[in-house]
Amino acid sequence: MNFKKLLLLSLLFISVAAVAQNFDIDLLKSINVYRDKQLFWFFKFLTDSVSFIAYGVPVVFAGISVARKNKNGSRKAIYILISVASAGIFSNVLKLIVHRQRPFITYPFIEKLSSGGGFSFPSGHTTDAFSMATAVCLLFPRWYVIVPMYIWAASVGYSRMYLGVHFPTDVLGGAIFASSIAFLIYKTQYAPQLKRI
Fold it and tell me: Which sequence spans correspond to the domains of the chain?
């Protein structure tokens, strides 16, 4: 590749990155700065519920399955827990690699309304929510499971922007990353076990 092509590709990449960053902050500004303040309690509740739901539900499900001696139920609970834990671990590693600052640090007009320590990309709360939602939906592929699970997960992602602690691309990245991890674990670990039962 000659120097002119390399220069053109570099300029194209910088331009696309600048447009994406502008879109990212403009969308976040419309969600955080111009938010309906009466909904604060709802989005704060949503964001605070993630760990209890993402980790608590599979643990309770596992306990009930063990008490009823339901091996298939136990396998399902373990799969959900492994999906959420794996996505959470890889998300934290990715945060350290990407090293992106939180939006309220980079842009002082973004109001931080919740805890948000460490780095920004990807959103850990969104990762937990989408890994659990995807795992549950793969195990129980019914519309009345899929719709509420993904509405909850998407609302968690929105809450992180509303509360000013994540960029939209942090949330989108967390959702894609988490869903991919849950799907990969399902296809490589859980689905083959199902065939042997």
Answer: 49-196
